[in-house]
Write a structure and sequence with these properties.
The complex is a heterodimer of chains A (133) and B (125). Chain A is of the alpha+beta class and 133 residues long. Chain A has four helices and four strands. Chain B is 31% helix and 0% strand. Chain B is built from five helices and no strands. Chain B is globular. Classes of the chains: A alpha+beta (133), B mainly alpha (125).
Amino acid sequence: MNRTYELMFIVRPDMLDEDLNKLISTLESSVTSSGGTVKSEVWGKRRLAYTVRKFNDGIFVLLILDGTGPMVHELERRLRVTEPVIKFITVRTDEENKRLDKIKKIRESRKKASAATAPVTPEAGGEPAPATA
Amino acid sequence: MAEETKAPEATASTGDARPAERPERSERPERSDRGPRGPRSGGPGGPREGGRKYFRRKKVCKFCTEKIEAVNYKDVRLLAQFVAESGKIVPRRLTGVCTPHQRRLSLAIKQARNIALLPFAGRAQ
């Protein structure tokens, strides 16, 4: 029963690249070892909206995980202990993704149905005679 | 904005008291967005307040018209449009957002605040 999560954390800005990569790979390995998939994105240095632990900037990292609750719990525990990490947030996204997929499917089926019933107008009407743009 | 707050006091008869969310209005079990906003059904907020007979610019929900389904805490630029200068979340009656989208938006803003993408108070530098 795997759930999808998004874990975003902020690392202090004076952290080196290699340390950051080491940290990310440690987290990734802990995820894959407990049977999950992970994808990471480093957003880079951004200005924070408010001062966190006396820092005004931070390096944002996003992890998209697939795993169980206890696994995320473990990850969070690690992040709490890691000194350079100053903030993190975990958001569960599987229900949201399900909902978005459903909407997309409905929209596509609607488009297909309308394209089937009116085959001439929507496709060929790409070249607008009253081209205002 | 000042007129909106002064008007309800004149219409005490409609029971549209903003400060006190009265539980007597039994048809409102959930107070999340119903209490202060009263029995208004969304669009025209004008005619119910203080005898104003004209329609108040029928604002449409930006998310519904542009078909933005996913409101993520990560897209700060979108969220910042619904946040005031002071950092407060702008009420639905001013932005014209529909209820489900306002709820998701508010959740996203609060998540963004937690991860320091938006400020809790004051201007975002």
